[in-house]
Design brief:
Elements lengths: L4 E2 L9 E5 L10 E5 L2 E5 L5 E6 L6 E7 L4 E6 L15 E6 L9 E7 L4 E6 L4 E6 L10 E5 L5 E7 L4 E6 L6 E6 L6 E4 L6 E7 L4 E6 L5 E8 L6 E7 L3 E6 L3 E6 L4 E6 L9 E5 L9 E6 H4 L4 H18 L12 H12 L6 E3 L4 E3 L4 E2 L5 E2 L9 E4 L5 E4 L4 E2 L5 E2 L10 E5 L2 E5 L3 E2 L5 E2 L2 H8 L4 H4 L8 E2 L7 E2 L5 H34 L5 E2 L19 E2 L29 H12 L5
Parallel strand pairs: 1-8
Antiparallel strand pairs: 2-8, 3-4, 3-25, 4-5, 6-7, 9-10, 10-11, 11-12, 13-14, 14-15, 15-16, 17-18, 18-19, 19-20, 21-22, 22-23, 23-24, 26-27, 28-29, 30-31, 32-33, 34-35, 36-37, 38-39, 40-41
Helix pairs in contact: 2-3
């Protein structure tokens, strides 16, 4: 295994470039997989031949390779890092940013055209296909938007080197499709549109001139399909479930895809025969890395592609196929090479008992099939349960099992049909209830009240579990009357606590008021009494024999506008043994003449 040392450089924001210094061009890997901040390099026999830890990376996704300069480009969805790196024959490599993050850039897939030195990518968040010129030396060019794909959700992207096309997958489930255009953005066209649910990834097999894609089907199913580059001769290669395939690659012999459910890389022969099934190429399930495998790149499919040889071989194979056709196939056909090739392709690939129309060289499909080569069944994944057939109008219909109904057998007829814990079954196509404690077609009439109360009301379990239940008032032999109220124990505890707090506050308030009243009761009450006819407020000249006095505690009062004095009582009267009235009379008697 080859080890590397990372030399860190500051990460400005986004796409990052790493370059490895290489002393030899010996081939050391066939397949590269990005996971987290690392790149794993494998041979075809599953041997791990090298690893690179990208210190600036966080969550690598897309990956592509330039075999001419031994340069690898990557994208990161956390900080959108694009990285240049070379073959792992030296330890040191550097990182240089290519594209800074703007307006929420989220680069999913990237491809590189070595002939024009152009990097293409699909941005899932901004919903665009963009490109940028990357020279061998010097600064990269400015990003250029090729296609605005608003509400299309572009995901995977692929490069057809020999025909100068780019392909991408639009994953919007309401309008899914696979499109292509020239490298300059012109001649945009839809290649695949029918019988797609959510296409996630695309790739091109340059040698065999085939388009491959992943379709994440509705529910737990997924498909891997392929076709000619123009969408004809569509073939279903893998139809499986319980996987989440996200990235796809192909080499001279095999298909590879990354799966996030099992955190693994899967593979199978691209020209599979009966008995060939997907197998795990590499499992990361028990890995200590907190990430799932993402982008995959194969050395064969991005290396030096001999396009003239490939295109010549394809034309030769088409010519041989034309020569093998029966003579009657060419009736009413022109001798033009292009028309002959088109007719040959169509005549060979009318699938599912489709009929070749000799005039225009197209396939006439049987009811229930569509597509250029009648390769797509309308019944595929249509019925959720039961069997699918086509009616007289060629539309799919579902024959549902007894328990299910609906246009696609999506509804369970027994769901919520029987009441009071009745058992539901289907008889003669209709739901039937077997009642336990009630009667009626749907067990809606309660009969055995005592048994129902035993099940639903006789236990405090629901209350203890703090579960709100329906109130029950049940009678057992006319002696039991029990109510389970809607409130649980938590609500009861809260109410009790509030009541105790309020009671405590009330007791404290009552005690304070009582204490304060006692203090006021012990204070003497001062009452004034006027003797004579002159009001106190006017204070006129008063005769010597007239004065104003205080009945109680007269020492503190003015007598005839003279300073206070304390008259001496001739007789001291005990307060405890005399009434207030007697005390007042004694004071008045002793005040006469201001002497005792």
């Amino acid at each position: 295994m080859i080890s590397t040392e990372t030399r860190r450089t500051p990460l400005p924001s986004l796409l990052l470039l790493c370059t490895l210094v290489v002393s030899t061009y010996a081939r050391s890997w066939d397949l590269a997989v990005v996971i987290g901040s690392e790149i794993d390099f494998f041979a075809r026999n599953k041997t791990l031949t090298g690893q690179a830890n990208i210190g600036e990376a966080v969550a690598l996704t897309g990956v592509t390779y330039d075999d001419t300069t031994r340069t690898m480009y990557l994208s990161d969805t956390r900080n959108n890092v694009s990285i240049f790196s070379n073959d792992l024959t030296q330890k040191n490599f550097t990182s240089t940013p290519l594209l800074k993050k703007e307006n929420g850039t989220h680069v999913i897939g990237i491809v590189f055209d070595a002939s024009s030195r152009t990097l293409f990518w699909a941005d899932a968040l901004r919903e665009i296909i963009a490109k940028m010129h990357v020279p061998v030396n010097g600064e990269p060019g400015d990003p250029v938007v090729l296609h605005n794909l608003t509400d299309r959700n572009p995901r995977g992207i692929a490069l057809d080197v020999c025909n100068s096309h780019i392909y991408w997958a639009n994953s919007n489930t309401t309008n899914p499709s696979i499109e292509r255009s020239n490298l300059d953005g012109s001649n945009r066209t839809i290649v695949i549109q029918e019988n797609l649910y959510e296409p996630l990834a695309v790739t091109i097999d340059h040698v065999e001139q085939k388009l491959y894609w992943i379709d994440d089907g509705e529910g737990i199913h997924f498909k891997i399909e392929r076709s000619n580059l123009d969408g004809s001769k569509r073939e279903l290669l893998v139809h499986n479930k319980h996987q989440q395939p996200v990235f796809l690659a192909v080499d001279s012999n095999s298909l590879y895809w990354s799966d996030w459910v099992h955190s693994a890389i899967w593979t199978m022969p691209k020209n599979a025969k009966e008995g060939d099934y997907p197998i795990k190429f590499k499992s990361y399930f028990e890995s200590k890395r907190d990430a799932d495998p993402a982008g995959i790149v194969t050395r064969d499919n991005v290396g030096k592609i001999d396009c003239p040889t490939i295109l010549t071989t394809k034309r030769t194979n088409v010519t041989k196929s034309v020569q093998r056709l029966p003579a009657k196939t060419f009736n009413n056909l022109t001798t033009s090479t292009e028309e002959s090739e088109l007719t040959t392709e169509s005549s060979i690939y009318c699938l599912n008992d489709g009929h070749l129309h000799k005039t225009d060289g197209t396939c006439r499909c049987k009811p229930g099939f569509i597509g250029t080569s009648c390769e797509t069944s309308l019944c595929h994944n249509y019925c959720l349960r039961g069997e699918c057939t086509t009616n007289h109008r060629g539309l799919p219909e579902c024959e549902c099992p007894d328990r299910y109904s609906g246009a696609r057998c999506e509804r369970d007829v027994c769901d919520g049909y029987c009441l009071h814990d009745g058992d539901c079954s289907v008889q003669d196509g209709n739901p039937y209830c077997s009642c336990k404690y009630s009667t009626g077609t749907r067990c809606e009439e309660a009969e055995d009240i005592a048994e129902i109360c035993t099940i639903y009301c006789a236990s405090d379990r629901n209350v203890l579990l703090n579960v709100n239940v329906t109130s029950c008032r049940c009678t057992n032999d006319m002696q039991t009357d029990r109510i389970v109220k809607l409130s649980g124990s938590a609500e009861y505890s809260k109410l009790l606590l509030i009541f105790l707090v309020l009671a405590t506050v009330a007791l404290l308030f009552f005690g304070i008021v009582t204490c304060y009243a006692g203090i006021l009761r012990r204070k003497p009450r001062v009452k004034r009494r006027f003797v004579g006819v002159t009001p106190l407020t006017s204070r006129p000249q008063i005769p010597d024999n007239q004065c104003e006095i205080t009945i109680e505690n007269c020492c503190n009062m003015n007598i005839c506008e003279t300073p206070c004095f304390e008259p001496k009582l001739c007789t001291m009267v005990s307060r405890s043994n005399s009434s207030k009235k007697e005390e007042k009379n004694s004071l008045l008697d002793n005040m006469e003449g201001n002497s005792c």
